[in-house]
């Protein structure tokens, strides 16, 4: 292998270019991240002197802050629901649409339409549907269920609303992937006598692997950053707690429990890091092969 | 390198960015001070700036009108969205605040005064003190005994009802809890929902807690509880929740999915019989029907305290510790303390009352007159739960706790234990 010798000028350009990128990265990403971790060990309220209190915030969180565990539960539910229900359903829709049904363009647009809405808007629409006094659902079915106020059911109906948008998103990505699958593969499978289901699961689906990874990442990100829809509905309280909401609730606002809120943020960071690290290590392992 | 890498990086960036947010938020300067440089040529007289949360049309217009009559200095008003102003108050006062800013009386004022973020205006009070009742002065006084706040307008909380409906059904305002319960039962038999109720926003239920606590245990205990000096597991507190639980069957069901506006409309539509709320409930009534709106103060529970206390949150003005033009700011506060200034505001905004005892009440609407009468009869004026205690306790503990109670009213003991544990963490 020939090692290239860099001229002084090359080095300067390299150093400058890399340096700028590293600086921006440190200042905008690692700096605030580490600052959050450091703040989580204090009881700072934005005004007082910084006072180190060790891991007390974490203890308070786990033992004496009831919204915390409901938020953890809801985040996990959210991830499971999007991953196990909404995403497979999106794939299912994509497969159906890929078969060029009549009016498939119409279905496609109808399913994709919600994706252009922000989740906050989906939240407002959800209220029009689920409100116990003026909501469409109760008006049509004659029920009197308090869909959004009853803390044992509201997370489910809100997840349905969030999934409504997520399905379209996943569908369009899979549809693009399916269109790119070489028809020769399917023909070959058919000649070999594979059934429709076998063709899909054994031949087509494995070729979608890159798409699957994208969709997985999107799903995880969507689940962890869920915020706007519950915030639009009831500020993420009473059954709709999410970690992201608790961070905001404690830090932003008059409360200004910055240390305490940072501790919640650190926990969210750890959870996301677990996903990101798993994913990255998988990716690098494959590259090495 | 695989073509997938960009996504990886993006996911990592997103992740990292999301967790950096708290630190950025914590560190960011204050966004409220992007004042446009205006009012040139004012150097001779000086300029006083006001940081205002009066972003709604009517309050905004009323402040502008009142300030226009101030002649001793030029005034520049920097209006910020109401909720944004409140949410950023810490950073705002620490950064480069305006000379004068809108704020609330009571503990919420004392909290910032204690941190050294407000200017002592006891000298202003020597001049204006005669215009206010002792209750208003107490609400303007910091924990060090000095004054930091000038009351401007306020509104009382009471039980509202439609007079026409009550006359038709022959209901009369109750004076004791037993009469209140009997009335509610009668309304239920008549096919009405006795008490309109909504707590989706989290704060309206605080009004019910406040009044039940003040009627049961008195104002002093209530304030002491709010200041973190009493235990939430005290049997006295439990009794408040027990009483409330007894009334739950008369409350409008599904309250956690309803906003106060919707509950207010149910009162206007005569679907509900009465509604414990602030005087701003009138906003939900069409102009023509507002004269039909009447109220009574929540009835007596414990004869020792009678009906001597009410919630009547006071809005007013303070001077920031970093004010540049303190003399001008004090002159402006004196102007705002004048009865004529407050009357100009109450005329424009019929949901409020003037704080000054010298204010002219002849221009008041019937509802405003009744409100002023109610407050003048009260010995103690509380400021509402989220103004009488630490902001972090009110928003991160009490809102979820009261919503939990409304959802499961039978679960009182564990709830109070949880509140007490969190209180101990916050007030330490």
UniProtKB/TrEMBL annotation, chain A:
Keywords: Cell membrane, Membrane, Sugar transport, Transmembrane, Transmembrane helix, Transport. It comes from the Bacteria. The keyword Membrane applies. The chain crosses the membrane at residues 12-31, 76-97, 109-130, 153-176, 258-280. Its main location: membrane. GO terms for cellular component: plasma membrane. It is a multi-pass membrane protein. The keyword Cell membrane applies. It is found in: Cell membrane. InterPro entries: MetI-like, MetI-like_sf, UgpAE/MalFG_permease. GO terms for biological process: transmembrane transport. Pfam families: BPD_transp_1. Residues 72-279 form the ABC transmembrane type-1 domain. Belongs to the binding-protein-dependent transport system permease family. This is Multiple sugar transport system permease protein. It comes from Nonomuraea dietziae.
Automatic annotation (TrEMBL), chain B:
Keywords: Signal, Sugar transport, Transport. The keyword Transport applies. Pfam families: SBP_bac_1. InterPro entries: Bact_solute-bd_prot1, SBP, TAT_signal. Residues 1-26 form the signal peptide. It comes from the Bacteria. This is Multiple sugar transport system substrate-binding protein.
